[in-house]
Amino acid sequence: MKDSPRHFPFARIYVTGVSASGKSHLASRISHALRLPYVELDALYWKTNWIGTSNLEMSDNLRPELSKDKWVIDGRQDLSHDGLIVPHAQIVIWVDLPLHLITYQLLKRTLERASKRRSLWAGNVENPWLAIINWIRFTFFPYYRLRQKYIAQYRDSPDLKLALVRLRNRKEIRAFVSRL
């Protein structure tokens, strides 16, 4: 473990990308390397029995975290709470991996979770078939449309006044983490 993190000028970091892109893993590594509190949006969103919070409740859960001086938050940017996070963030780290790699990561993650029956948020255990079906519905089919939306939101927006790092493959992710 490093004695102290190198200088990284950002203390409010939003790690985002589509489902199974590796954003939680990356956010956890950033949080550890920089010694910043880590907030996983799924942990704020999911209740027991896979019941999601309402938009209002999610906003109420998220606001106290956003009011802090330092954090690493991860989550999908196409959800309603994205409008709350970006104005507070100093940098967006967009995990923009190719669809074939995301597909591989999802299958690997789902098989691992199913074989270990690992408890996730609020004690929920993932149903592997439902995970794959939801991924097809919410990531595979809209993948290219979502990427265009993210490009417009993060790269092409003249109003966006924060730093953006777009990581497109594992090599770029490893290089980014090694510089922290």
Query: How many domains, in number, for the residues?
Result: 1
Runs in which pLDDT lies below 50 for 5 or more consecutive residues are: none
Percentage of residues in strands = 15-25%
Estimated structural class: alpha/beta
Individual helix count: 8
CATH architecture: 3-Layer(aba) Sandwich
Major β-sheet annotation? 5 strands, parallel
Protein name: Adenylate kinase
InterPro entries: Cytidylate_Kinase-2 (IPR052922), P-loop_NTPase (IPR027417)
Your description of this structure?
This protein is 48% helix and 16% strand. The protein is α/β, with parallel strands linked by helices. It has one domain (12-178): Rossmann fold (3-Layer(aba) Sandwich), CATH 3.40.50.300. Helix 5 (99-116) packs antiparallel against helix 6.
Q: How do you describe this structure in short?
A:
It is built from eight helices and seven strands. It is of the alpha/beta class and 180 residues long.
Element layout with pairings:
Blueprint: E1 12-17, H1 23-34, E2 38-40, H2 41-45, E3 46-47, E4 51-52, H3 55-66, E5 71-75, H4 82-85, E6 91-95, H5 99-116, H6 128-140, H7 143-155, E7 163-167, H8 170-178
Parallel strand pairs: 1-5, 1-6, 2-5, 6-7
Antiparallel strand pairs: 3-4
Protein name: Adenylate kinase
InterPro entries: Cytidylate_Kinase-2, P-loop_NTPase
